[in-house]
Amino acid sequence: MKFYALDRTIKALIFDMDKTLYTSAEYVGSQAEKLNAIVAEQRGLTPAEIEKEIEEARKNWADSHGGSRPSFSNIILSWGFTMEENVRWREEACVPEDYLKKDPKLRETLLALRSLYKLGVITNNPVSIAKRTFACLGIENCFDALAGLDTCMIAKPHEEPFKKISGALGVSPEYCVSIGDRYDIDLAVPLKMGMGGILVNGVEDVYSLKGAL
Ligand SMILES: [Mg+2]
After folding, report:
1. pLDDT tens readout for residues 117-170
2. How far is the CA of 155 from the centre of ligand 1 (A)?
3. What own/partner pairs with CB < 8 Å and gap ≥ 24 does 74-77 have?
4. Mean pLDDT, residues 17-29 taken together
5. Which secondary structure element, helix H or strand E, spans residue 197, and what is its range?
6. Which helix (H) or strand (E) holds 56?
7. Are the C-beta atoms of residues 201 and 183 closer than 8 Å to each other?
8. pTM value?
9. Cα end-to-end distance, the chain, whole Å
């Protein structure tokens, strides 16, 4: 776990979802595999060919964005697909029920944190998938605000979803801390907006947040 700019009064915590509120290499892998297969079919390529193209696109993006990594959404939008298609394909590709189970320790952690802070979630998956993921983990009703890919129709690391959640929580960025597993996607922009940040390695780090803050 790594902390950034936490010397502040904290009033709200904004969590990423995938690989932050759960740790499941199998589920994350299945999402990528299914999404790749859908996009490959759309482009008339094999899964191996699309993986090569994605790697190439990541390199090009990094070269033109100061070395930062793009989200998968950024890549497929740069290929001319629409955000509506991106949302629909993710709804097809994500089946949290097949991989995730109730996490009482996470629920207990979130409820304890919620007695101290407002809690929000921003995910680059659609809102419907986020709600199903919360149900699988047993953490429904643990958050004060949620923004998915189809809330602003724009993906992290754009600042729009962070502004949206800060507004929905009624907490200005200087009192917010963004928590996620990818620095370039979850932390770089919020830090620029004046938030604090915590880089986690998975849900195991989230369990220890209360003591760490
Ligand atoms: Mg993540």
Report:
1. 999 999 999 999 999 999 999 999 999 999 999 999 999 999 999 999 999 999
2. 12
3. 74/155, 76/39, 77/155
4. 97
5. strand 196-199
6. helix 47-64
7. no
8. 0.93
9. 12
Q: Ligand 1 centre from 123 Cα, in Å?
A: 8
Domain of 49? Answer: 26-97
Domain stops at, among 97, 114, 138: 97
Return the CATH number at 126.
Answer: 3.40.50.1000
- Given pLDDT bands bounded at 50, 70 and 90, which one contains residue 210? confident
CA of 72 to the centre of ligand 1 (A): 12
> If you measure from the C-alpha of residue 41 to the centroid of ligand 1, how many angstroms do you get, rounded to a whole number?
25
CA of 80 to the centre of ligand 1 (A): 24
What is the distance in A from the centroid of ligand 1 to the CA of 177?
15
Which residue, among 123, 73, 67, 125, has the nearest Cα to 95 in the 3D structure?
125
Phi, then psi, of 193 in degrees rounded to 5: -80, -5
Q: Please choose, from the candidates 191, 171, 190, 125, the residue with its C-alpha nearest in 3D space to the C-alpha of residue 11.
A: 171
d(CA 33, CA 178): 28
